[in-house]
Amino acid sequence: MAAELNESMRALVDAPNPAVLTTLNPDGSPQASVVWLDRDGDDLLVSSTAGLRKERNLRRDPRASLTVLGDARGLRYLVVSGTVTITEDEGRALAVRMAEKYDGEGAGQEYLDLPPEVVRVVLRLTPDKVVLRDYSG
User: Fold this and answer.
1) Are 56 and 103 in contact (CB under 8 A)?
2) Residue 133: how many CB atoms within 10 A of its CB?
3) Which of 21, 38, 78, 79 could cross-link to 45 by cystine, CB 3.0-4.6 Å?
4) Is the pLDDT of residue 107 over 90?
5) What is the 3-state secondary structure (H, E, C) of 73-88?
6) How far apart are the first and last CA of the chain?
7) Who contacts 115 (Cβ-Cβ below 8 Å, separation ≥6)?
């Protein structure tokens, strides 16, 4: 059963906060990647290049965890665990949208300028468990 994000959780995801995606390597060890993040309803979206370790790990084992940092001191954060599905990022739309979210208007052009053999994918994490921690007082 999918878990739902509350408004405070959604606001954390909707802001340009850094996140860490953790997947499982073939030997069972964790592999962590700093990622940009977007949202579709309660699903969390990450754009990646096809063939990278995180994408290969998720094709083999779709379980993942994502930690969204809400402040520089790490006193407010969201942890989301769930299952990932992978689709092609048609027209690199997600990559462009996230570049502009994190780096400003026009920043997405670098993704549009990539050669056609560089395939971008959408990693869609459907949450099974969500935990918001706030120790900021």
Assistant:
1) no
2) 13
3) 38
4) no
5) CCCEEEEEEEEEEEEE
6) 32
7) none
Summary mean pLDDT of the chain = 94
Work out the pLDDT band at 42, boundaries 50, 70, 90: very high
What is the pLDDT, as a whole number, of residue 96?
Answer: 93
Q: Is the pTM of this model over 0.90?
A: yes
* Structure tokens that stand for 54 in this block: 């995180």
Is pLDDT of 18 > 80?
A: yes
Residue 110 parent element (H or E): helix 109-112
CA-closest candidate to residue 71, choices 134, 2, 121: 134
Cα(129)–Cα(90) distance, rounded to whole angstroms? Answer: 29
Burial of 83 (0-12, 13-18, 19+ CB in 10 A): middle
State the DSSP code for 4: -
Cα gap 107→69, rounded to integer Å? 22
State yes or no: pLDDT of 51 exceeds 80.
Answer: yes
Q: Of 25, 123, 37, 24, which is closest to residue 79 (Cα–Cα)?
A: 37
Q: Could you tell me how many residues make up the chain?
A: 137
